[in-house]
Specification:
- This protein has 246 residues and is of the alpha+beta class.
- 30% of the residues lie in helices and 15% in strands.
- It has 6 helices and 10 strands.
- The chain has helices spanning 69-88, 113-120, 175-182, 192-205, 211-217, 228-244; strands at 3-4, 16-17, 22-24, 27-29, 32-33, 92-98, 101-107, 139-142, 145-148, 161-163.
- The strands form 3 sheets. Strands 1, 6, 7, 8, 9 and 10 form a 6-stranded mixed beta sheet that branches.
- It is elongated, with a radius of gyration of 26 Å.
- Residues 3-63 have low confidence and may be disordered.
Length: 246
């Protein structure tokens, strides 16, 4: 069961306006600072990267100087909004079972399984290629079914059995991985983990597939190097090993 970490009460977002003439080393005119857009101040006068500022007719950035009390208020407001943004999200503590091991992690409800695997668990086999479910490089197995981890919310697979490419072939390479190497079914290798996981699902489902079945089950995995003929050959080769092993 996911544990919700409560969100604090609403804090008003500040928007700071100036109706007086201000000046700095980079321009003259009226300045408007929207605190919500601040991306982190740089500690020097006239920084163009401090916030989103209005400009004058000459399109020069306008910014109150260090001696202007409104600048201090801006920094304080930015800090308040920054802290609010951090606590705005309802974080959840969940337990994921990955490659036979349980991992308790704290995630945002919107976080993908791919990001959690890579950033929190250090399992970088699943690749972030398109991040929109088009390339198949992020394929993993969830309860024995192939899933695109970039489109799978981490919170949705709590308690399920997740297998990544790192979980294949405990103590050595899986026969499928050996077949990919033996048949030189890769070039740059970026898509290979996803290809292997899709092929694993195929062979678990159909131990002795036809060429057409291999093409169908692997159709969601893109190889930009164009190694498709050797990928198909490797999967068929691995199926023979699966058949021999029973």
């Amino acid at each position: 069961m996911a544990t919700h970490i409560p969100t604090p009460l609403f804090l008003p977002l500040a928007k700071l306006h100036s109706n007086t003439q201000t000046h700095s080393k980079v321009g003259y005119g009226k300045a408007e600072v929207t605190v919500l857009w601040c991306m982190g101040p740089r500690p020097f006068h006239g920084s163009k990267n401090l916030c989103s500022l209005t400009t004058d007719a000459k399109n020069e950035f306008l910014f109150p100087g260090w001696d202007d009390p409104r600048y201090v208020k801006t920094l304080i407001s930015a800090a308040v909004v920054g802290l609010w943004a951090i606590f705005l999200v309802n974080l959840m503590r969940i337990t994921l079972r990955v490659n036979g091991l349980n991992h308790t992690v704290t995630v945002e409800p919107r976080e993908s399984l791919l990001d959690v695997l890579r950033k929190q668990l250090g399992l970088t086999g699943a690749k972030k290629g398109c991040d929109m479910g088009s390339c198949g490089a992020c394929t993993v197995l969830v309860d024995g079914k192939s899933r695109l981890s970039c489109l799978t919310l981490a919170v949705s697979v709590e308690g399920m059995d997740i297998v990544t490419v790192e979980g294949l072939g405990r103590g050595g390479l899986d026969p499928l991985q050996e077949a990919f190497i033996r048949n030189d079914a890769l070039q740059c290798g970026f898509c290979t983990p996803g290809q292997v996981m899709s092929a694993k699902f195929l062979l678990d489902t159909i131990p002795n597939p036809s060429v057409e079945e291999v093409k169908y089950y692997m159709s969601g995995n893109i190889c930009r190097c164009g190694a498709y003929p050797k990928i198909i050959k490797a999967v068929l080769d691995a199926s023979k090993e699966v058949k021999r092993n029973g």
